[in-house]
Amino acid sequence: MPIDDLPNEVLLTIFKILVNSPSPSFSNPPCRIAEVCQLWRAQSLLIPGIRCALPLISFGASSCALQGELKTEREISFAMRNLSNRHKEHPDFLKVLKKSTQWGHAEFLDLHIDILRLISASLFRDVPLLHTLKLNIDVGREDYAGYLYSFDVAPALRRLELECTTNFLFKAPFAQLEEYVERSTSAIGIGRVLHPESKIQSLSYYSFPSTALPLILYPTNEPIPHLTTLNLHLSSMLLDALLSPLVLPALTRLRVVSGTLNQVDNVQGLISRSGSILTTLSLSVDASGIQAMRTIENHASLLHTCSELRNLELDNLDVSLYQEIVDPSSPSFLPHLREFVAHLIQVKAPAHPAHELGLTWTTSTNGVDGVDRQSRRVPFVRLIFPSAKERVVAHKYLQMGSGKPGDTEVDVDERLKQTTQFLAGSLEAIRWWHTFSSSKRPSSKLQSALAFLECDHGAVQDAWQILLSRVHIPLDKILHSQIAALQAVSERVRMILDQLDTRLKELTLEWRSENETTLIRAGEPSPVTLATLLDAERI
Fold it and tell me: Per its UniProt entry, which superkingdom is the organism in (predicted)?
């Protein structure tokens, strides 16, 4: 059978074996699978660690020697960990160093600063094929890492990733880079990458917390013509200093994590000044920042500027802003939006919940200016709630509410309250028993919750059936737990899950739980099974 005819499942199994191999090839490492063809690339995306699967040479107590010389004449790829000056005569290091003219993809992880001078002297002008380089510098307690110039002459270098938590001087051909990732406290290469003559296409910069503001230097505010992807995680002050003079006409994808919502002004200024057309935008406030709520008042102008967005992620989101973005009748509606990830804050059960959560056009085909609303809705939505309880309450409203103006409020009945108590109680019990596992009997609260689920709750049309589809998360955790007290009820849990699976097959659901705090809507309502719900949990 030709390899092109292999089923995708078989191909994926082969790829996983390659990734988990104890001795991957130096000349054809698993990370190169994605370079073969479109099908192989698509399948490789299902294996998160494949891009990092390189032959690893680790120096230390667990290191294992390379068998013989590296006899290949092809380009080689490798990763080294814990390399320091005491390993300068190590046979494995010398074998790889001898092949420096064949290096294509090299990664140095936890590289000690005492080896930098030797590397500079040994490799200068000696890496003609190197196209991808990753440096993770282990600085210990030092406030200065040193100086590394060995890669200053690397004509093929296109992708560079650099991480260092202190001052570090590094020479590299930054102008020719196409992809650059930096995590630092001192803006090691940012100023040299953000240059009008730079070929940079993708830039990611994370600034570690520091008392001093990194010095970022670039000559003018002339356009940087090729940069399409920008990913920033910076303090508010540094974000303002970095974005204020930039002009990025080719920018299409932007992600910003900073300390306050002032990022909205920075982003809008950048887009307006650059004349760029964003298709992907992600805005977040980091954990140490001020967790203010995003509202339509402080985002309307930005959304108008980014009317071509196809992918959007916002945190600390007010429900009314979510509604404005997804409702076709709203002036802030984004007509081209294909994916929306919303981190909601202070969610409460509204009087007309389906309307407030943007479900008005899922139950009505009345048009807006003659356009069918159903055809204009966002195809994929992910709602992330502050707690599991709020996710359960919202799901009842989203799935069962009609969303028509004038509808009476759907009461939160006693069964829903007991369901949320079961979710909170069982998850809390599981975590508690992981810490104190001497108990041999389940708690009375968990016993009562299981007894409640074992009852007959009526016809499949009842709203309770929808709620049952949300309890599979803690039930599955109980079923597979190794704790004695939970194993004692495993058979009861198995029977409840079997009963739940039978009921689910009679339902069509639009909103589904992805984990304890997340709901997703993808495509049209469709039948659901317990297996698909559990698979979503295990991803």
Answer: Eukaryota
